[in-house]
Amino acid sequence: MMGRWMQQIQKGADAVPTKPTQHSFVSSVGSPSGDFEKKQAANDPLTPQQVGWLASVASLLEVATHHLVEGGFIDRHDLDEQLDAEPSEVARLIRSDPRWY
């Protein structure tokens, strides 16, 4: 029984695949969409808005901006996603982190 299946598999391997006649869903996977905003790369310079927001949060916490970044309290994703967040709310959230003290 196993020999018969193996023969069919080997026969099928000799056949040349045909080109599809219609585009399938798979052909669109990986194509860029205009609906999504391009994210900044981790090593891109900060925008003036990001620098200002980070400085506001650092000022409320009475630390330098690099302390927040190097300590892992704010990362690049936060700078991209939380830019509209109120700095005082972010500072309150950072103070609640057990690593803060």
From TrEMBL:
Composition bias, Polar residues: 19-31
| Annotated region (Disordered), positions in chain | 1-41
Name by which UniProt lists this protein: Uncharacterized protein
